[in-house]
Design brief:
The protein is α/β, with parallel strands linked by helices. The protein folds into four domains: 3-73 and 81-101, PriA, 3(prime) DNA-binding domain (GIY-YIG endonuclease, 3-Layer(aba) Sandwich); 132-315, P-loop containing nucleotide triphosphate hydrolases (Rossmann fold); 318-369 and 425-561, P-loop containing nucleotide triphosphate hydrolases (Rossmann fold); 571-659, Ribosomal protein S10 (Alpha-Beta Plaits), CATH 3.30.70.600. 30% of the residues lie in helices and 24% in strands. It has 18 helices and 30 strands. Helix 1 (74-86) packs across helix 2. The chain binds adenosine-5'-diphosphate and zinc ion (ZN). Zinc ion binds next to loops.
Length: 665
């Protein structure tokens, strides 16, 4: 085997063959990272396979090999190949995604720590004695772990039912088997407490990988895994690629979360990749959620996954009581739509008196999502995106939430010169301002993208809330998940209609998940919690299921709707996006593509479009889409790849493929 096929971090699907010079022959193996001449430059590439004979007659020589063990295990290569085929993404790009960014830029001088077997000095908190429900769940999980073959267990457990505790006991068992564990969390900063608990329980053998770490730190953690010093890898979706060689378990916490989907090439779904990796490495997967993705629950119902259910909170703590506040009624007395009901402010006051804490949730940052002229109706929009710009206070500017461009606040209407503009709608800053006015003595903090830009801001806000210094926490998505503050007895959802107005078939599911997550922040201690959902659509099935906190009620009604329209899980989707300018050119390219897919894909594929994307323009580029629906159990990836390979790419129009998209806007 004197030759090697290399893949480079370039958007090309093929590999390139090279001669391995004699002095490197004993070192180069599958998965090695090597330097080789590429075009007129030299490039680092990865050895996919060793060859007796190259495919081409003229080959160049490999120049150098990176120090340390091979960066890819054979199993990871297998996974990369699957991802490349399934997500229609060049292998080189997939390999690139699998490594922590900095790994590719430099090799840290490995200060080789003496090989320490993990010491037993970890600060174990003594684990809780599991309750009956947890024990039953553990029984099944342990059985699967003992069998040591590929399997997926879905843990459907209400918030506070002790899922995390089950993760911890499962990890312990896998470590005792001498195997390694990956724990995926939606985002470290959103689930600090889960991560903390894993670290507290297992100490030094935990490798943490997340985007806020410096490049050097991330490489160090990666290398600790390679050397076998770390046995548990915790991180967001990319942690699924942690280079363990003896994987026994992958846990996907909050498996329904959208952040598991990468929105740039390769557009992979971290949860699904976790399942494939486990399949290749004969490991067990635990998916955990209070609101499983419809597809996951469906798979469990079909018998593809094991299902364990935790219906009760631990220690017989009651579920919070969820009430809906009908904003149409609340507004009547005012003669206009209000955004802060009397019911909600009364309840907040009550909590403040009892020295309990409050969380207010609104999925919209800024002060007001729209500024318009009361005289001529002109709305201030971002010219690059055709979307209303959001008014932000403090720095007093208008911001486009799509492209982040800013403009100063106009002093008069740009169209009719009317001297006063109206700020319409409510964002987190406006709630903050309102609360400061009506509750001058309460201490509150706002947590959203704007208030957490500085380092540690996140932790500081949460710390002040934990200590009780802050009584009211106002925030976006950031506060919806994972937080466990026992003194919070009221959660207010400012508006449960926002999300549902978006034209996306998953919006109902997304809203239900969000409402359930937020509701789960209330009453986690000994005191009973209340949740108030302000809405204009109290009779919507999603709101009613959220009020009943009944996942199955939601699941059943949603499934009927999906079945009628043959949406996932009754079909699968690939979305094709066309982006560029001028618009007629974009339309033309989309039309050409639609002719091709209709011709070459199996006739069972339903082709929708081309049509304008719901967000029709971003940063001056026009957006069109084609949506392909195809039956489960059938694969359109190969014919689709051929279509794409033969397609004449237009310089002006970018074509992007999204397999299993989570969002169609
Ligand atoms: P989930 O992940 O389902 O939200 P957790 O595992 O975080 O639930 O459990 C909620 C709280 O209850 C945590 O503070 C946890 O330490 C505690 N807990 C979990 N299991 C038990 C148990 N069997 N007995 C007592 N407390 C428990
Ligand atoms: Zn914009």
């Amino acid at each position: 085997m004197n030759y090697a096929r290399l893949f480079f971090e370039v958007p090309l699907k093929q590999g390139f063959d090279y001669l391995i010079p004699e002095h490197l022959r004993s070192q180069v193996v599958e998965g090695s990272r090597v330097l080789a001449p590429f075009g007129r430059a030299r490039k680092w590439g990865y050895v996919k396979e060793l060859l007796v004979k190259p495919d081409v007659s003229e080959v160049k020589e490999i120049l150098e090999i990176a120090e340390g063990p091979p960066v890819f295990t054979p199993a990871l290569f297998q996974l990369a190949q699957w991802m490349s085929d399934y997500y229609l993404s060049p292998l080189g790009m997939v390999l690139r995604t699998m490594l922590p960014g900095p790994f590719r830029k430099f090799r840290s001088a490995t200060s080789r720590v003496k090989e320490t077997l993990f010491e037993e000095e970890n600060e174990m908190e003594s684990p809780h004695l599991l309750n009956e429900e947890q024990k039953k769940a553990q029984g099944l999980i342990f059985k699967r772990l003992d069998e040591a073959i590929f399997s997926v267990v879905l843990i459907h457990g209400v918030t506070g039912s002790g899922k995390t505790e089950l993760y911890l006991s499962s990890i312990e068992k896998v470590l005792a088997q001498g195997k390694d564990v990956i724990v995926l969390v939606p985002e470290i900063s959103l689930t600090p407490q889960t991560v903390e608990r894993v670290k507290n329980r297992f100490g030094k053998i935990v490798a943490l990988m997340h985007s806020r770490m410096s490049e050097g730190e991330r490489v160090k953690e990666w290398e600790r895994i390679q050397r076998g010093e770390a046995r548990i890898g915790v991180g967001p979706r990319s942690a699924v690629f942690a280079p363990f060689r003896n994987l026994g378990l992958i846990i996907v916490d909050e498996e329904h979360e959208r952040t598991y989907k990468q929105e740039e090439m390769p557009r992979y779904q971290g949860r699904d990749v976790a399942i494939m990796r486990a399949k290749f490495e004969r490991a067990v997967v635990l998916l955990g959620s209070a609101t499983p993705a419809l597809e996951s629950y469906f798979n469990a119902e079909q018998g593809k996954y094991d299902l364990v259910t935790l219906l009760k909170r631990v220690m017989n703590r009651p579920m919070p009581e969820v009430r809906v506040v009908d904003m149409r009624k609340e507004s009547e007395a005012y003669g206009r739509l209000i955004s802060f009901s009397k019911t909600l402010s009364d309840e907040i006051n009550e909590r403040l008196k009892r020295r309990e804490q409050v969380i207010l949730f609104l999925n919209r940052r800024g002060y007001a999502p729209m500024v318009l002229c009361p005289k001529c109706g002109h709305v201030i929009i971002c010219v690059e995106c055709d979307q209303a710009m959001t008014y932000h206070r403090n720095r007093e500017y208008m911001l486009c939430h799509l492209c982040e461009s800013q403009i100063p606040i106009p002093q008069k209407c740009p169209k009719c010169e009317h001297p006063r503009l109206h700020r319409l709608g409510v964002g987190t800053q406006r709630i903050e301002t309102h609360l400061e006015k009506i509750l001058p003595h309460a201490t509150l903090r706002r947590m959203d993208t704007d208030s957490t830009r500085t380092k540690d801001a996140h932790e500081k806000i949460l710390q002040s809330f934990r200590s009780g210094e802050v009584q009211i926490l106002v925030g976006t998505q950031m506060i919806a998940k994972g937080l466990d503050f026992p003194n919070v007895t009221l959660v207010g959802v400012m508006s449960a209609d926002v999300a549902m107005s978006l034209p996306d078939f998953r919006m109902g599911e997304h809203t239900f998940q969000l409402l359930t997550q937020v509701a789960g922040r209330s009453g986690r201690g000994d005191k009973k919690g209340v949740v108030l959902i302000q809405t204009l659509t109290p009779f919507h099935p999603v709101i009613r299921a959220a009020m009943a906190q009944d996942y199955l009620q939601f699941y059943k009604s949603e499934l009927v709707y999906r079945k009628q329209l043959v949406y996932p899980p009754f079909s699968r989707i690939v979305s094709m996006e066309f982006e560029g300018k001028p618009e007629p050119k974009v339309i033309q390219v989309a039309k050409e593509m639609s002719v091709l897919v209709k011709k070459h894909l199996p006739s069972s594929t339903r082709v929708f479009g081309p049509h304008q994307a719901p967000i029709s323009k971003i940063k001056g580029k026009f957006r069109w889409q084609i949506i392909l629906f195809y039956p489960r159990g059938q694969s359109i990836h190969e014919p689709l790849r051929r279509v794409l390979d033969d397609f004449n790419q237009d310089r002006l129009v970018k074509v992007m493929i999204d397999v299993d998209p989570v969002s169609l806007i």
